[in-house]
Amino acid sequence: MEVEQVLHMNGADGRTSYANNSLLQRAVISWAKPIVDASIEKLCCANLPAECLRIADLGCSSGPNTLLVVSNVIDKIQNMCQNLNRRPPSLQVFLNDLPQNDFNTVFKSLPGFYKKLDERKWPEPCFIAGMPGSFYGRLFPKNSVNFFHSSYSLHWISKVPKGLVTEGLNEGNICIAKTSPPSVFNEYFEQFKNDFTVFLRSRAEELVPQGGMVLTIRGSINSHEPHSICECLGLKINDMVLEGLIEKKNLDSFNIPYYEPTMEELMELIEAEGSFRLQDLQVFKHDWDSFIKEADSGLDKKARAGIFSTHIRSVVEPFLVSHFGEGVMEDLFRRFEKDVLDYMEKEKCQSIDMVLSLTKEY
Ligand SMILES: C[S@@+](CC[C@H](N)C(=O)[O-])C[C@H]1O[C@@H](n2cnc3c(N)ncnc32)[C@H](O)[C@@H]1O
């Protein structure tokens, strides 16, 4: 099945929805805010259009995070225009995600968003539109967008690497895992390399000259020790295969289209593509579950495991369901919840989030 046709986060606002389980991504947006602010400040000082400023958020998903970045950006533009004694331009904001994203929930939240804009006396019209489609390709006309933003989306690659599908290189795993042969790492990296280069090339065509882009990408500390959360999920699927609850051939034919690059890999790809100048790069290193401890340090282990498991479920469940079916999900995530914190402690699981501020070179 084509990744574009099935990939999305859990929609609506139920117990396992992305909207109710995206605390980590929300924390990451707040870490990146000073870098987004600096990029907007630069844009306002050097390149603010008189008529209309176009912004796009790529991989917007649905829930409270979707309009958070847009709201922060508008605040910053308003402050800058006051400081510079300029009338703000009108705004056109594009919310992009794959077609299966729950755009309905996003659109239903727009009246409340417009009301808040009125309350804070934003003086010009703001037009918000959905832009369904893959960011691994063109989404907008040439030279039309002033600022791109994308958070926690670019580690999803456009397809499961070809060799994993046709040659079954990664039997018993669902991602790059300790027992995967080196060719699996190479296949994933090649796919990420192609996708990220297409992403940069597409955005370079769409950005106005000197336009800005801030990308937040979840990454690996070392490329050959990826420590992916999906590895733990794969172990639980393996257990269910051993108990006859999932067919082995179903596990062997499944791989997640997900790659967490290292900082060095990203830098090399940006330089090789050549359209962008790096203005700023910040790296945040954290334990996988630190966002839960930071939100509430009084939670016991069982409560933390529950929150962590539902957080992961809200992200990967639709993709797992497209292959394994809905029927095994409760059991799978119960097992995952039971073991994931011990797994993290044993493996000392940490990730990095990289925030990159880029401007178009020409
Ligand atoms: C973890 S969510 C992040 C959502 C939001 N930016 C946040 O920070 O909370 C990743 C989003 O990227 C979207 N995505 C993945 N691949 C994509 C692609 N090729 N084109 C557009 N969106 C994509 C997914 O559908 C998902 O909604």
Account of the protein in words:
The chain is α/β, with parallel strands linked by helices. The protein has a single domain (3-360), classed as Rossmann fold, CATH 3.40.50.150. Helix content is 47%, strand content 18%. It is built from 13 helices and seven strands. It has helices at residues 3-6, 23-47, 68-84, 103-108, 110-119, 162-166, 182-206, 229-242, 248-252, 263-273, 290-295, 301-324, 329-347; strands at residues 52-58, 90-97, 126-132, 145-151, 207-219, 276-287, 350-360. The protein has a seven-stranded mixed beta sheet, with helices on both faces. The longest helix has 25 residues, at 23-47. The radius of gyration is 21 Å and the shape is globular. The mean pLDDT is 91.
What is the first-to-last residue Cα distance? 39 Å
Q: How many DSSP H or I helices? A: 13
Ions and ligands: S-adenosylmethionine
Measured by DSSP, the beta-strand proportion falls in 15-25%
SSE ordering = HHEHEHHEEHHEHHHEHHHE
**CATH top level label:** Alpha Beta
| Total E-strand runs | 7
CATH superfamily: Vaccinia Virus protein VP39
CATH topology (level 3) name: Rossmann fold
Rg, alpha carbons: 21 Å
How many domain modules? 1
**Shape-level CATH architecture:** 3-Layer(aba) Sandwich
Computed structural class:
alpha/beta
Reading side by side through the largest sheet, how are the strands ordered? Answer: 3-2-1-4-5-7-6
Biggest sheet overview: 7 strands, mixed
- Mean pLDDT comes to 91
